[in-house]
Amino acid sequence: MIFFESILAIMLGAVLLSAGARRIGVPYPVVLAVAGTALALVPNAPAIALDPELVLALFVAPILLDAAFDTSPRDLRRNWLPVGSLVVIAVGVTTVAVAVVARWLVPDLPWAAAVALGAIVAPPDAVAATAVLRRLRPPHRLVVILEGESLLNDATALLIYRLAVGAVVVGGFSPASALPTFGLVVIGSIGLGAILGWALVRFLAAFKDPPSAIILQFITTFGVWILAEELHLSGIITIVVYAMVLARSAPARTSARLRIPSYAVWETTVFVLQTLAFVLIGLQLRPILATLSPREIGAYVVIALVVLATVIIVRLSWVMTYQAIAKVTRRAKESAKTEGAKTESAKAEGAKSDGAKNGRAKTDGAKDGPRLASTAGSDGLIIAWCGMRGIVTLAAAYALPGGFPQRDLILLCAFTVVVGTLLIQGLTLPLLLRRLSPRDDRPVEREFRMARKLALKAAIATIGDAPSEAAEAVRREYDDMLAQTRDSDEFDTTQNQLRRDALAAARDKALELRSDGTIGDDAFHRLEEELDWLELGAAPRTVE
Which end of the chain has fewer CB atoms at under 10 Å, N or C? Predict the structure, then answer.
């Protein structure tokens, strides 16, 4: 009973803190981090423990699927160079730097354990960054890079983490044998994720009842992770690929009646898991701090703060280095194009036009390649400062085996890095964004308007010249929606406001009829559901 009461108290506190965070304009992951820190210092707090082997599957799998489902493969392809540099190089350099610093500060720490610590704190979490960025409407390109990085760097870091933990367990590490294994794991995980996504989307489509379908969504998510782990593949990569395949296939097979509650349940689940992750790590730190002397606590805190500084400095250094390299490379290409154009123009008067055409062809071809091979200086600074760590770091630290070398120190370092980056970078990111004022060309709004216009035209064409009054009413409704798309940037018109006012009156009347006994609850709930669907159709059509 105490455990149940503790969970209820934790969730109530999380909801209240989240509501308070929204009122004061602070991203809720920052508030959760502070609450987790406070729990570590509360005496006689309840002891809640989970099996370390369960933690990654429980916390990471559903959150990762939720993020991957919303990721655009097209946008990732267009931004593959900056995303790839952050996913591979930034994570690798951070892991090595933290490992070296940890070994310097704690000489008796095994190299494999030091590398595990580096991999734990290496991957940034986009949840906190986008929680800040989306409120301030940043350029879409920044959100794409940060979300793509967060989605894929977890796989890189956790692959290194698994190799390092395995090296500690077996007592050795061989790069010659690890690299082929690494490659096979990546290829096998991609293949398994794609196959399971293709198969399970057809299986899930057979279930139309929302409660059953949503439960199966969670069962299959955990099942995909467990199967990948049993096959000694990467659960992270498998889940990411599985979710992307699912996202491409599921919309055509899922009804609105199922999709709306499903999205709501997943959003709630992600919030609950993030809350529990911060709380559980905070509760694990309390007994650790209780067993240490004040001198040992001071030494641990110093080490954790140095690791925090290393993480922040390495990310800033790499992003600035990438910016410099990209700038030099871009100038070299532009110079080469200019020299080529001069050579072509000097050959002959007749060949001049052909040379100009070739130059234009080359320019157009470059546009078809990866976009954002380099980003503006202000964009780079924002990306560098969006290095907040989150749930993957906490879950990976908690998942270390009980007898792992310096497990308590690693757990404290991971928690310090998460809380420190959320407080330092999370609270100052809005100021930086306002200061730099990056420009946004609003590509999502443009694409939404274009797609909405074409979709509505297709709907009107389907009705055709049907002569019935019902067809004419539907045609007028879609014509009205099409006019809104042409005439309004915010897609919210006087007509929609009138619809919302009318629906409010209809809802009041339904409540009155139930209150005076004219209708029973069954009839009321059926009418309520119909009014709910109408209200969704009359909602403000803005794009975030």
Answer: N
Tally of domains in the chain:
3
For the segment 104-122, the average pLDDT, to the nearest whole number, is 93
Query: Can you give the length of the chain in residues?
Result: 544
* DSSP H helices in 370-493: 377-385, 391-398, 407-436, 443-463, 469-487
Q: State the pLDDT confidence band at 357, using cuts at 50, 70 and 90.
A: very low
pLDDT at position 367 over 50: no
Segments forming the whole domain that contains residue 342: 320-368
Residue from 242, 232, 183 nearest 64 by CA: 242
User: pLDDT-based confidence at 296, cuts 50/70/90?
Assistant: confident
Question: Does 390 fall in a domain?
Answer: yes
How many CB atoms are closer than 10 A to CB 175? Answer: 8
Pair 535, 501: CB distance under 8 Å: no
Are 38 and 151 in the same domain?
Answer: yes
Distance CA 323, CA 330 (A): 10
Q: Are 226 and 184 in contact (CB under 8 A)?
A: no
The token pair at 236 is 């992270």
CB 111 within 8 A of CB 99: yes
- Gap between the Cα atoms of 281 and 94, Å rounded: 23
What was the pLDDT predicted at 443? 74
Residues 309 and 342 in one domain: no
- Look over the chain and give the mean of its residue pLDDT values, rounded to a whole number: 80
What's 80's domain CATH number? 1.20.1530.20
Work out the pLDDT band at 195, boundaries 50, 70, 90.
very high
Amino acid at the residue 87: V
Q: Between 340 and 412, whose confidence is greater?
A: 412
Q: Is 543 a domain residue?
A: no
Question: Could you tell me how many helices (H) and strands (E) the chain has, helices first?
Answer: 23, 0
Task: Report the run of H or E that residue 180 belongs to, with start and end.
Answer: helix 175-204
- 334: enclosing H helix or E strand: helix 294-347
List, for residues 483-514, the tens digit of each pLDDT value: 766 655 554 556 667 777 888 888 898 888 88
- Reduced 3-state DSSP string for 122-168: CCCCHHHHHHHHHHHCCCHHHHHHHHHHHHHHHHHHHHHHHHHHHHH
In this structure, is residue 373 part of a structural domain? Answer: no
pLDDT at 173: 58
Q: Which contacts of 437-443 are long-range, i.e. CB under 8 A and separated by 24 or more positions?
A: 437/378, 438/138, 438/139, 438/142, 438/376, 438/378, 438/379, 438/382, 439/139, 440/137, 440/138, 440/139, 440/140, 441/139, 441/140, 442/140, 443/140
234-284: per-residue pLDDT in tens? 888 899 899 999 988 888 888 878 888 898 899 888 888 878 777 777 777
Which structure tokens are listed for 165?
């933990």
pLDDT of residue 427: 84
**195 and 288 share one domain:** yes
